Amino acid sequence: MNIFKSSIVLLTTTSLLAVAGEKIDQTLPIGDVTSVEVENLRGKIKIVGQSVDSVHVVGELDDEAEGFTFEQNGSVMLIKVEMPRHLENNWSRQETNLEITLPKNVNVSFSGVSSDIVLSELDADASVGTVSGNVAIKNISKRLEVSSVSGDIDAHQIGNLTHLSSVSGNIDTSGASGSLFVKSVSGDIEAKSTAPIVEAKNVSGEMVLSLNSVEDLMMSTVSGDIDADLSLDNNGQIKLSSVSGDFHLNFLNDVQAIFRLRASAGGDLINRLTSVKAKEDKYGPSSRLSFETGNASSRVSGSTVSGNIVLTHK
Amino acid sequence: MNNSSQSSQAKLDNAINDLNSEIAPSRDLWPGIEKAISQQPREQVKNNHYSWRSNLALAASVVALVITLVNVNGLPNPSNQTDVVAMMVESFENERQAMLVSFGNKPVSKNALSADLQKQLDELIKARKSIISALEEDPENADLIHLLKFTQQQELSLLNHIYRPKWQTI
């Protein structure tokens, strides 16, 4: 046990000595670690889950790195590239480039600024926070939370509870199961999923959604447009809201629902599912569209101020 | 046969007539009965008093519940919805100002990233204003209120990103 502890201390000590552009190739046993935290300011980090019982870090540190921490603290293992508070504007610099392999059942969290992150093959929870770095994620089976400012997010084959958010970065996701929550300000969102619960919000970005067997769907936008191909399950519900953004809902199944749509200031409500037309209010620019299809077990409701809502089938 | 049954009947009648018409209690029960009679009206008064109090408490509870429900859910009328919007706008402005003060109103670093964020911030401010303007026309629209809340949250989140010290290092 003493030898084991000494070896950890030795490894940590050697880690702290590794600086500025140095090559890294280090391993620590996973022991009773339940989560691994990774911090890197800029560059690229690749994290892969494998059937192993240790954490292995290999690659190269940033030219301006001041240190490298690789240590266990209780049930948490920390991997951190230490950087100075103020960086030089040297465009020919070598940025950190590390590949980390770890047991696939430990939780992973990553935080970076302009660092890209590639994360895959985890049977555990993962959270990623970055500012301008791009995020690529694949095969995460449990909870996933990704937040970015201007970086793009690609997340595929993801778990049963997923939150993806960006400000101006684009979001492209597929293969979510369970619940999927996506939001953006001006970034575009493209989502294909079989998740029964989906919430998609944006301000001005465009959204293209392809949703199978959705039970509970909420979509809102201020001025962006939303195109959705979807099949709504019986007893499901869809809620739409926009200011000037348009919705185009294309139902892939024989939707059986009560429809209650409203445009309060000039938006058009176009129904191509049945022959029922929107009725304009006697006074003012608002209009309403109300009708039912099939056994009306589901509900589709929504409102827009001046946007259009178009309903089509296949 | 007939004579013997008649004599038996006569004996039984005589025996009944010989019995005392009253059975005396083993002790004097009247003091206890009198005490019980004298206490009964007092207990009835007490019970009436309790019932009046419980009714009052029940009425007060109902009034309190109604007031609470009105405060929590709001009355479904336009003026109340307008109040909600006004409250949201005021609360947001306070939070925004507090956030800016906490950041010391320091200037944002001029780089491509912050320029992009400033553009997003302008977009959010524009969106927020357009929703408030739409709510003035349609104050009962709960969807718009949710949208307003969403844009407000995004704006605060963005301000946090812009002014976070981490940004100064990029």
From TrEMBL, chain A:
It comes from the Bacteria. Residues 51-251 form the DUF4097 domain. Residues 1-20 form the signal peptide. The keyword Cytoplasm does not apply. InterPro entries: Toastrack_DUF4097. Keywords: Signal. The keyword Signal applies. This is DUF4097 domain-containing protein.
TrEMBL record, chain B:
This is Anti-sigma factor.
